[in-house]
Amino acid sequence: MFGKDVEKKENRGAVMCFLVAVYTITSIVFLLQVNQYTQDIYDFPYLVSSQARIMKSRLYDFRSLTPCFFLRRISTQPNWKAR
Predict the structure, then answer these.
(1) Neighbour-count burial for 32-60, b at 16+ CB within 10 Å, e otherwise
(2) How far does Cα 25 stand from its chain's mean position?
(3) Predicted pLDDT of residue 7
(4) Of 2, 11, 23, 67, which residue is least crowded by CB atoms under 10 Å?
């Protein structure tokens, strides 16, 4: 009679250990995902800011080079009458 009660308690202990292990692993995986999401949210404004700075720099470069393209004189003009 006492043998069956002891076996049931051992089985309950094993089941509880298994459930605790599953819960622990699930919690760790969830916290790692939350950590990644938090890091992405933290980095996002800096990524946007750096991309905006890069675009602004390219725009200024383009604005400074545009007059060079339009104001440059063509040294050799085609001679259409020579044909």
Answers:
(1) eeeeeeeeeeeeeeeeeeeeeeeeeeeee
(2) 25
(3) 64
(4) 2
